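Q&A log
Question type: sequence-to-structure
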Amino acid sequence: MAEHTSSSITIEASPADVMAVIADFARYPEWTGEVKEAEVLGTDAEGRAQKVRLLLDAGAIKDDHTLAYIWPAENVVSWTLDKSQMLRQLDGSYLLAPLGDGTRTEVTYQLTVDVKIPMLGMIKRKAEKVIIDRALAGLKKRVEAA
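Response status: OK
Response body:
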């Protein structure tokens, strides 16, 4: 089984408010440091993104790739790599857990990255950690500012 990196953060908002920001791919370049462009290529029957093209610049990892998204539960979204120039694997998920009276949410982000070029595992894990930490901080700031 591939190694993965995960981290959690608490956001002062309901899971529905957090998921609304996560699902708004067109605005990712506004709050994620690594995503420079995002384009929804296909949606499911409920209008949620199924295929999204992302232009990523995460320092050691730069790529133009497409991800396939699934929404298995109300507070869960996960994705797998569909096609990429540089990446062999980019699988991840957001899991949202309501806290207290539901006005706060614990967000857990899990990510597995593998590149086509040789790269030390330690460097891959560091890139995953940077992507996760920046995404969670950006998500928290974006949701709480709304």
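Response note: DSSP finds three helices and seven strands in the chain.
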